[in-house]
Amino acid sequence: MSLWSRIANVFRGDRLNRDIEEELHSHIAEAITEGRDPGEARRAFGSVLSHRESSRDIRLIPWLESLCADAVFGWRQLLKRKVTSAAAVLSLALAIGSCDAAFRLMDAMLWRPLPIAAPDRLYVLSREVAGPDGKVLASDMFEYPLFRQMRAQVKDQGELIAVSSADHIDLTYGSDQETEKAYQQYVSGWMFQSFGIRSALGRVFTENDDLTPGAHPYAVLSYDYWKRRFAADPKVVGRTFRTGNEVYQIVGVAEGPFTGTEPGTVTDIFLPTMMMKNNAIVRSDYQWIVTLVHLKPGASVPLVREKLRPVFRAFVEERAKVSLNPHFAAFIRDQKLIVNPASAGVSELQQGYGTALFVLGGLVMLVLLISCANVANLMTAQATARQREMALRISIGAGRWRLVQLVVIEGAWLAFFAAGIGACFAWWAAPLVVGMIGTPDNGVRLILPADWRVLGFGVTMALGCTILFGLAPALRASGVKPASALKGGNPQLRPHMMQLLIAVQVAFCVLVLFVAGLFMATSGRLSRQHTGFSAERLLTLETVTPQPQPAPLWSQVADRLRTVPGVEAVAVCEWPLMTGGIWSNFISVNGAAPGPVASYFLSVSPEWRAIMKIPLLQGRDLRASDILPGSALVNQAFARQYLEGENPVGRSFEVVPYEGHRDRYRIVGLVGDARYRDMREPMKPTAYFPFQADYSRATFMIRTVSQNPLAMASALRLEVPRARPGFRVSNIRTQTALIEQHTGRERLLSILALFFGVVALSLAGVGLYGVLDYSVLQRRREIGIRIAVGAQATDIARRVITDALAVVLAGSIFGIILGIASVRFIESLLFEVKATDVGALALPTVTILAVALLAALPAVIRAVRIDPVTMLRSE
Amino acid sequence: MAKPDSLQGSLDLLVLKILSRRPRLHGYAIMSAIKESSGDVLRADEGSLYPALHRMEENRWIRAEWITKDTGRRARIYELTAAGKKQLADEESRWHAVTSAVNRVLRTV
């Protein structure tokens, strides 16, 4: 291969030179042997060097050779200044690594196509309606009967696929004692065929596995789960597992990396939609499936949308008619059907964290730009110092382009090193951040493979950085005027370029600090939100039974738990506050039609209020003799909303769960407001009912003596089944953890934003220090003369600082303007924080000014200490 | 660029032709052969013969080999490859076409 030999010759240049030279010399020797005059023979031959060079250029690839030479030279230049180069590489690596990590998270969550056939033709249906406050409320959840009608309607254009959200369920492959957890998802039987997913073992579902409600107790495992849980045991097909009362038989394992359509959750077990409980298949009032549309090739989205809309309209009209509440009916009727692309899948995580990740991506981008500006300044200063070398190169015939190449390659060394270290950093940091997203018992699992997308991003990053910080110094270096530079003219650097870069750095830094400040304030406000109850030393034992058990049996278990040493008090409720569990309905007072505002409900045992430390304001607590429906405690918001704020004790209200059925409650007590669902909403009307029905899932609330309630977790977990066989603890969490999960995103954002703020600040500080120090070095003659003619140290200091401060101030103002302009992108992530607060504006400005002064200090000291005599003598 | 006594682009042809008749010559011998067989009319510019040889070598028309001569000095000798033979035929026919065309012009004008 000629090309190959030429490439190979690049890397053995010395041998090639010797080879060619030997041949040329043998020519002259031959001539002399023939009897020619040595001098004449040499003259006739011409310049050996020049012939060698032209032969050499033929026998290798000249551009590759010059590239290699420049790479070696650039490498030596970097080694010459080890400390500076290492600092530049590390600061860049941190910035590039952060960008890599952010990219990997965003890619995994938002962009990476699902591992299915034709993911670009996958869409998801969504319903939108304008909420009471004008904001658009969107939901991806649909009713199964509606799904059936819609599927029939677009049969020719594509396949409609129903998938439930993935649940973390309890199941057992043996006895109750061996219960474990797995993520399970109901999917349409025809999903596998439509997605082109075959079986790795046994079979996957087909349409025939999803025909009759309750008649298909079969399960398909994901490949990942099969390997993880069963070590890829081929005998798994035919095994059964039990969850609750239901027994499923494993019929096969799906092939490939497909683990459901929900980024952030890795589905282990697929079940047919027909197996969903609670009559879900036929109920028109139960929204529980996500409707995916897998279009056929060539089918158009608008056509599908137009075909689906009449079916949807008819369905919601029907729903609105049977609605008991006129406000709610209008709300139902106003819904619109939307078709959105879903090639990357659909999950709540995308909605919850999508914006947050974009903001983080923006922040790390700014940090990267700050870092690039630093390196650009560094390289510009070095290029100036190397003006004579460059001039010499031009004089002996180097083209300007070759000089650009020389400097750019030096930059590329820095960038690619940084990208390599950065990739390692991202490798470590991305899973760490994923770990911070999830809650402890319901972790987020994102697939974060290192593939060509990640590699491509890294290389693009490195190239982009090279051009960002390498090109300007390179063009400067190549623009050198050899005559003046070689004559010894003092290399003067245009200060504007460096000052502009510093101003930009400061502006970006202020922007990062500003956003970080807003996030920290948000996180602080949210975590200090009043909950209305005390979570101190509270442990929640979510307990399940195979069959619904009457309330007295639950109290028996509670009694037994009270005898465990270290337990201070025990109560039972259907679920703890702030878990996400919701029971709500509209309230009717004095037989009137229900109003537009719904109330939350929760069934609790008599001890519950006291254990939660919710104050009793009027009336009495619930008693064991209270029945359901019958008695109720209500909170202040309830009294304000429905009973005009009067003393509600003794009054009654009705709940209308469905047409013709009214549950009447008499209010026996008024209690303080407590948060039911999340930290952001205002205190909502809430009624507490007696814990008096049959329950197959409820939670024991336990206040422990010890400050660390989790220390008792395992003892209590063992005690429950001993108290009553069949009762089993499914989940143990502290009430504090339940509250903290609602501020997790804000905490994550504030931690990361603070981290990047500190990084940005230190980078900008180092950059400022470098440029100021350099400018003093450049102006030392001028300063020396000033001192010689009698300038005071304070004058010199003021002169140095004023210049810097002007740049920093200009940058800060620009940064604040950017911040205020960009605040609307992050508004949805903020809570009770205004961008125009004095604190939000002043804090970053003051911080950056302080850092600027600190960074200016060494330069000032150097300037003041200049000794005019030594200075002027050396020039 | 071309000097008056240079071979005006026919150097390749001459080298290939000489190597086809007398394989395994070193550079100096090729130069001498050109001089001799042209009756001292054509002279290859001594130094620039080598870049031309190396270019033809890169083009795979000729291949080179180091040998040690009786004098103990090493020499790099060249011989034609199959591709070189084909190239020679091409160049030869092109040369004939050009010279006959030039001759025709000289005759008619």
Radius of gyration of chain A: 37 Å
Q: Which ranges of chain B are low-confidence, i.e. pLDDT below 50, for 5 or more consecutive residues?
A: 1-6
Low-confidence stretches of chain A: none
Number of E strands of chain A = 24
Strand order of the largest sheet of chain B: 1-3-2
Shape of chain A: globular
Rg over CA atoms of chain B:
15 Å
Strand content of chain B: 5-15%
Query: How far is the N terminus from the C terminus of chain A?
Result: 59 Å
Q: Kindly report the oligomeric state of this protein.
A: heterodimer
Helix content of chain B: 40-55%
Q: What is the H/E string of chain B?
A: HEHHEEH
Counting DSSP H or I runs of 4 or more residues, the number of helices of chain A is 27
Give average pLDDT of chain A, whole number. Answer: 86
DSSP strand content of chain A: 15-25%
What's the main sheet of chain B like? 3 strands, antiparallel
Helix-and-strand structural type of chain B: alpha+beta
Description:
The complex is a heterodimer of chains A (875) and B (109). Chain A is α+β, with helices and mostly antiparallel strands. Chain A contains 27 helices and 24 strands. In chain A, strands 5, 6, 7, 8, 9, 10 and 11 form a 7-stranded mixed β-sheet that branches. Chain B is of the alpha+beta class and 109 residues long. Chain B has helices at residues 11-21, 27-37, 49-58, 82-108; strands spanning 25-26, 62-68, 74-80. In chain B, strands 1-3-2 form a 3-stranded antiparallel β-sheet. The two termini of chain B are 29 Å apart.
Write the layout of secondary structure elements.
The complex is a heterodimer of chains A (about 900) and B (about 110).
Chain A: H1 2-10, H2 13-33, H3 38-45, H4 48-59, H5 62-80, H6 82-111, E1 122-130, E2 136-139, E3 141-143, H7 144-153, E4 158-164, E5 167-171, E6 180-187, H8 191-194, E7 199-202, E8 218-221, H9 223-230, E9 240-243, E10 246-254, E11 269-272, E12 287-295, H10 301-322, H11 326-333, E13 336-341, H12 348-385, H13 387-395, H14 400-437, H15 452-478, H16 482-486, H17 495-527, E14 538-550, H18 551-562, E15 567-573, E16 584-588, E17 598-604, H19 608-612, E18 616-619, E19 631-635, H20 636-642, E20 652-658, E21 661-671, E22 686-690, E23 694-704, H21 713-723, E24 728-734, H22 735-740, H23 744-778, H24 780-788, H25 793-826, H26 838-864, H27 868-874
Parallel strand pairs in A: 6-11, 8-10, 17-22, 19-21
Antiparallel strand pairs in A: 1-2, 1-12, 1-13, 3-12, 4-12, 5-6, 7-10, 8-11, 9-10, 14-23, 14-24, 15-23, 16-17, 16-20, 18-21, 19-22, 20-21
Helix pairs in contact in A: 2-3, 2-4, 5-14, 6-12, 6-14, 6-15, 7-10, 10-11, 12-15, 12-17, 12-23, 14-15, 17-23, 17-25, 17-26, 18-21, 23-26, 24-27, 25-26
Chain B: H1 11-21, E1 25-26, H2 27-37, H3 49-58, E2 62-68, E3 74-80, H4 82-108
Antiparallel strand pairs in B: 1-3, 2-3
Helix pairs in contact in B: 1-2, 1-4
